[in-house]
Design goal:
The structure is a single chain. By secondary structure, the chain is an alpha/beta fold. It folds into 3 domains: 4-195, P-loop containing nucleotide triphosphate hydrolases (Rossmann fold); 208-285, Helicase, Ruva Protein, domain 3, CATH 1.10.8; 290-371, Methane Monooxygenase Hydroxylase, Chain G, domain 1. Helix content is 54%, strand content 10%. The strands form 3 sheets. The protein has a 5-stranded parallel beta sheet with strand order 3-4-7-1-8. Strands 2-9 form a two-stranded parallel sheet. A hairpin with a 2-residue loop joins strand 5 and strand 6 (135-138). It is elongated and about 105 Å long. The chain starts with a helix and ends with a helix. The mean pLDDT is 90. InterPro entries: AAA+_ATPase, ClpA/B, MoxR, P-loop_NTPase, RavA-like_AAA_lid, RavA_ATPases. It holds the Pfam family bpMoxR.
Length: 373
C-alpha cells in the first residue's frame, strides 16, 4: 500500500495544530505500531483536541473517550454492572460502548485513576484483555492515547501505569512568536483524510516487514551503554518494543529500511523523568550525527590508499623508496590523529572507535615492517 494517504493525514493535522509536528508524527506512528502514547503538559496546549482526531481519522472504528477525576468509578470506563446478572449474584459489566470494546481510546487526566480503575486498566492496556466477572475478554484495543496536566509523584502507585506508555511527549505552549501569531489569525477549517480499519491493518502488516540493519542494533546497544554510564537505565522491554516504533517511523517516511535518523524518535521513548530528557537527547543526537559518516567516508579511502602506497614502495629497494615510505607513514599518522581527535569529542560513536583501533594496529604493524626494511 502507498503511504501517501498517511502523509496527507500528517500534513492536514499539521495545518490544524500549530507547533505540534513531533506529536502528530508520533500519533500516527503509535497507530502503525499498535503502541500507546502519553501527552503531558499544561491545559490549553491542544492535547485533547489532537488526541480526539483519531476517532475521525480511522473510519468504522469504535473510539472511546473519557475524562477521569479522583471520583471516577469503574462504571464510567468499563461499563455498568448488569442489573439482571446482579440479581443472580453475578458481578458482570455491560461493556457495550465502553473501553473494553474500543479500537482506540483517549483517556484525559489518566493519572487521576484510582485503585478501583487502575488494576483493570493496566491489564487492558498491556495485554488487551479485560476480566469481566473473572472471565477474560479479548479487547480490540489497538492504541490508547492518554494525557495529563502533571507528572506522577513517587509513592502514588502510578509507576506501572506510566511505564505502559512507550511514547511520552512533554507538550508545551507554542514556542515561536510567528507561529503563535499565525495560530491567532487562522480561522480556516481543515478536512482530514481518513483510512478504514482494514487499511490500517494492512499498513500495520507492512510496517512489520520494515528491515532493521545490524548497524541500527549496534547503535541501540551503544545508546543503552552510554545511558547506563550516566545512571539512566531504560528497561530491556522498552528497548525491544521501540523496534516497532522505528519500523513505523521509517515506513511513514516512505522507506522499508530503518535509518540512523529514525533513532531521534527515542528521545521521546527512553526517559522516565523529565530531567533526563536533555541528557538522553544529547547522547542520541551524537550517535545520529551524519557528519561522522561523512568523515569516515573521507578518511577510510585515503588511509587505504596510503597503506597500498607504502606496500608498493617497500617492494622497491632504493633510498627514494625509503624516504617515500617515511613520508607516507607520517601522512597515515596525521589521518589517525584526526580520527582520534573526533573520537574524543564523540565517544559514543562505536564506528569511530573501531576505525581508530584498526588504523592504530595497521600503522603499528606497518612501522614494524619499515624498521626492518
Amino acid at each position: 500500500m502507498d503511504q501517501e494517504r498517511l502523509r496527507q493525514i500528517v500534513k492536514s493535522l499539521n495545518a490544524m495544530f500549530y507547533d505540534r509536528h513531533d506529536e502528530i508524527e508520533a500519533l500516527i506512528i503509535a497507530l502503525l505500531s499498535r503502541q500507546h502514547i502519553l501527552f503531558i503538559g499544561p491545559s490549553g496546549t491542544g492535547k485533547s483536541a489532537l488526541s480526539s482526531m483519531i476517532g475521525k481519522i480511522v473510519e468504522g472504528s469504535h473510539f472511546f473517550q473519557h475524562l477521569l477525576t479522583r471520583f471516577s468509578t469503574p462504571d464510567e470506563v468499563f461499563g455498568p454492572l448488569s442489573l439482571k446478572e446482579l440479581e443472580q449474584g453475578i458481578y458482570q459489566r455491560n461493556t457495550n460502548g465502553m473501553l473494553p470494546e474500543a479500537d482506540f481510546a483517549f483517556i484525559d487526566e489518566i493519572f487521576k485513576a484510582n485503585s478501583a480503575i487502575l488494576n483493570a486498566l493496566l491489564t487492558l492496556i498491556n495485554e488487551r484483555i479485560y476480566y469481566n466477572n473473572g472471565q477474560p475478554i479479548i479487547s480490540p484495543l489497538k492504541t490508547l492515547i492518554a494525557s495529563s496536566n502533571e507528572y506522577i509523584e513517587e509513592g502514588e502507585g502510578l509507576e506501572a501505569l506510566y511505564d505502559r506508555f512507550l511514547l511520552r511527549y512533554d507538550v508545551q505552549y507554542i514556542r515561536e512568536q510567528e507561529t503563535f501569531l499565525a495560530m491567532l489569525k487562522d480561522d480556516s477549517s481543515q478536512q482530514v483524510p481518513t483510512i478504514t480499519l482494514d487499511e490500517l491493518y494492512l499498513y500495520q502488516k507492512q510496517v512489520e516487514l520494515v528491515h532493521i540493519p545490524d548497524a541500527i542494533f549496534s547503535s541501540l546497544a551503544t545508546i543503552r551503554k552510554e545511558l547506563i554510564n550516566i545512571g539512566i537505565r531504560p528497561s530491556d522491554r522498552r528497548f525491544k518494543q521501540s523496534l516497532s516504533l522505528l519500523r513505523a517511523k521509517a515506513y511513514l517516511n516512505g522507506r522499508m529500511k530503518v535509518k540512523r535518523d529514525d533513532l531521534v524518535l527515542l528521545t521521546n521513548v527512553l526517559w522516565e523523568k523529565v530531567e533526563e530528557r536533555d541528557q538522553i537527547t544529547k547522547i542520541i543526537y551524537e550517535i545520529v550525527d551524519d557528519s561522522v559518516d561523512t568523515f569516515i567516508e573521507r578518511i577510510s579511502p585515503k588511509f587505504e590508499t596510503l597503506i597500498m602506497d607504502i606496500e608498493h614502495s617497500m617492494m622497491e629497494n632504493s633510498i627514494a623508496a625509503k624516504e617515500s615510505v617515511g613520508d607516507l607513514l607520517l601522512q597515515g599518522k596525521s589521518l589517525y590523529l584526526e580520527v582520534q581527535e573526533l573520537t574524543i569529542k564523540m565517544p559514543n560513536r562505536q564506528e569511530l572507535i573501531e576505525l581508530k583501533n584498526n588504523m592504530h594496529k595497521r600503522l603499528l604493524d606497518m612501522t614494524k615492517q619499515v624498521i626492518g626494511f
